[in-house]
Amino acid sequence: MPDFLNRMVITPELNYDQLTIAEATLIQQQLRGHLNLEPLQIEAKTIAGADISLDLYSETVYAGLVVMSYPDLQPIAYSLVKSSTIFPYIPGYLAFREIPAILKAYEQLPVKPDIVMFDGNGILHARRMGIASHFGVITDAITMGCAKKKLAGQYVDPGPSKGEYTQVTDKGEVIGYAVRTKDNVKPVFISPGHQMSLEDSLTLALKCTGKHRLPEPTRRAHEYVNRFRIGTLTEGYHEFDSRTLF
DNA sequence: GCGACAG
DNA sequence: ATCTTGTCGC
C-alpha cells in the first residue's frame, strides 16, 4: 500500500460498501492527485486481465485475474475469489463496487503481473478516476482500461478497419481512444490507468488484440470469471503446467 | 432542467 | 452485469 493512503481519508481498512456518493466522489478527487501518466518505465513481460462476474440481482461477486505472457499472450496463471458487494452500480463509481473483490484476487497472486488491464476505464472518466486508475493508484500497479461502451467525453467514429482509432476528448483534453480492434465491429474505449501514457495504452491494446473485439487479457478474464461463476473453474490460485505452454 | 450514463 | 435463438456477414 502506498504510504500516502494513510495520510488522507483513504485507509486500507476503508469499507467501500458504506460510502455515500459524496464521499466516493471526494475519494476520487483525492486519488486523482496521485495519478502518474508518464510513459511506461518497464518492458512488460506479463499482462493480466481483471474482471468480475455475477448473477443478476445478487450481491455475490466472482472476481479474478488471468496472467498472460507478453507479447505472446499465452495464459500463465489465474486467481479467482468469491466475494460480495452491496455498493450499487452507478456510472462513474464502478470502482467502489468491483475493486474490493478484485483486490482480493490480486493479493492472492504470488507474483504480480507487470500490467493489469481492466474491463472498464482508466482516465476516460469525468474525474479521470475510472476503475483502472483507481486500482493503480491504491496499489501502485501499472494499469489501463478497456471499456465496451463510452462513459464520458466526445469522439468521432473511427474508420471501419482494424487498427483505426480516434481520440476521446473532454473539457479540451484527450482522455482516451475509440479503437477499432476488428473490422466492421463497434470500437472499444482505451485509456491509461496509472503509470503509463495515453500512447502506451493505445499501443498495448492493439498489441493485445488478435481475432476478437476485446483484447486478450480482458477477453480471457471475462471468460474465466464467468466459468468460475457457473462452476467450471474453482476458487483459488492456479498455474498452468509449463509443459502445456509447448 | 435535460441528456448521458463503464459494469 | 445477466437473461436468450436465430440470424446476418466475413
Written account of the structure:
It is a single chain. This protein is α+β, with helices and mostly antiparallel strands. The chain has one domain: archaeoglobus fulgidus dsm 4304 superfamily (archaeoglobus fulgidus dsm 4304 fold, 2-Layer Sandwich). 24% of the residues lie in helices and 26% in strands. It is built from 5 helices and 9 strands. A 9-stranded mixed sheet has the order 6-7-8-5-4-1-2-3-9, with helices on both faces. Strand 6 (165-170) and strand 7 (173-179) form a beta hairpin. Helix 2 (94-107) crosses helix 3. The protein is globular, with a radius of gyration of 17 Å. It binds 2 DNA strands through strand 1 and helix 2.
Strand order of the largest sheet: 6-7-8-5-4-1-2-3-9
Rg over CA atoms, rounded to whole Å, is 17 Å
**The CATH H-level homologous superfamily:** archaeoglobus fulgidus dsm 4304 superfamily
Overall morphology: globular
Low-confidence stretches: none
For the record, the count of structural domains works out to 1
Query: What is the average of the pLDDT values?
Result: 95
User: Helicity range of the residues?
Assistant: 10-25%
Q: Order of SSEs, N→C?
A: HEEEHEHEEEEHHE
Q: How large a portion of the residues is in β-strands, by DSSP E?
A: 25-35%
Q: Based on the structure, what is the oligomeric state of the protein chains?
A: single chain
CATH architecture: 2-Layer Sandwich
Query: How many β-strand runs?
Result: 9
CATH class assignment? Alpha Beta
Straight-line N-to-C gap: 37 Å
What class do helices, strands and sheet pairing give? alpha+beta
Please count the helical segments: 5
